Amino acid sequence: MHTFLHQKLIDNLYTKLDLETNTSILLAISSGQDSLCLLRLILDLQKNSAFRFGIIHIDHQCRSDSTYNATHLVNIIKHLNVQSYIYQLNPKKYSEHALRELRYEIFMTTALNNCYDTIATAHTLSDQTETCLFNMIKGGGLDIVNSLTWKRNLYNRLQLIRPILNFDRSEITWLCRYYSLPVWFDYTNIYYTYNRNRIRHEIIPYLKEYYQIDIERSLGKFLENLYNDSEYLRQNTLKGYLKVKHPKYLAINYHQMIKQHVSLQVRILQLFLVHHTQIRPSSKLLYDLLKTRKYNRPIYIKNVSVMICTKNQWIYIC
Fold first, then answer.
1. Domain boundary, last residue among 215, 236, 262
2. Which range marks the domain in which residue 106 is found?
3. Angle 4-11/33-46 helices, nearest 10 degrees?
4. Distances (CA, A) of 279 to 49, 271, 301
5. Which keywords does the record carry (predicted)?
C-alpha cells in the first residue's frame, strides 16, 4: 500500500525534477533514516515504473562503528536484487573537504562507468534548512547559502538530484516507523562539537518555539525564490564572460568587465578562474583581484602554482 509520501515523491520526480520514465538512477545512500526512507519509496515505485536504479555507499571510516554500519547496510541491500557498489576510504589520508570531493568523484565515476545518467541523494528539507543557516552564519553568498538545490548538472548529461528535498524530518521519521525500517543511529548527530548539531538541536527549535513559524517551510520558500535570482545571475555571468574573454589566450578584458555591476564582475572573475584552473576562489580573493588590477600588481594564489597578472587592459593567468 502506498502512502502520501509515495505520491509526494512521484510528484517530485515528474514535476519538480522533470525526469524521463527511462531514467537510470544511482542512489547514494547510507543506513540513516533519510536514506532508508528514499530507498523504500524508490523500491515501491519501481514496481510500476521503467526506472533502472542501483545503489552506491561509501564507508568513510570516520566513526568507530563505521565497519558495523557498512555491514548493516550490505545485509539490507543483499536481499533486494539491486546492483550495488560499496567503497571504503581511509580518512587519515584526506582532509574533510578532500573526502567530500573524493566522494562525489567516486559517485560520478561509478555512474559514468555503469551507464547511470542520474545520481540521487537523500537530502531533505531539514538538511536544506540547517545548511542555509550554517552558511548564513559563515557569511556565504547567494550560491553558498542556497547550495542544496533540487538538481544540478555534474558532467555532460550526468545530473545530481535530491528527490526528497521537500520532506521534513517528521515525515521521514513517520515513514521509517510505519514500515519499521532498520535505521542505524548515527551517534555523532548528538555531539555539539559539530556546529550543525547545535543548529539542529538548539537554534531551529528556538525559532519554532519563540517565533511560532515553520522555519523549514519558510526557509524552503525563501530558498526557492533565491534560486531563481541566482539562476538569473548565472545566466548573465556567462553572457558577460563570453563578451570579455580573450579569443585565444587565458585572459579577460578588464575594461570591458568593469562596465558590468560589481556583482557580475566578481562572478565573471570566479568563472574565469574555475574554468581554467579548477580553483574555487574566496570572495576576498576575487575582490582583491579587482583592487590589484588598478595598480597593475600581480597576485599569487597560495598553495596553488598560479599567478594572476595584469597588462594593459587584460587580466591573465601566468
1. 215
2. 4-215
3. 80
4. 41, 10, 9
5. ATP-binding, Chloroplast, Ligase, Nucleotide-binding, Plastid, tRNA processing
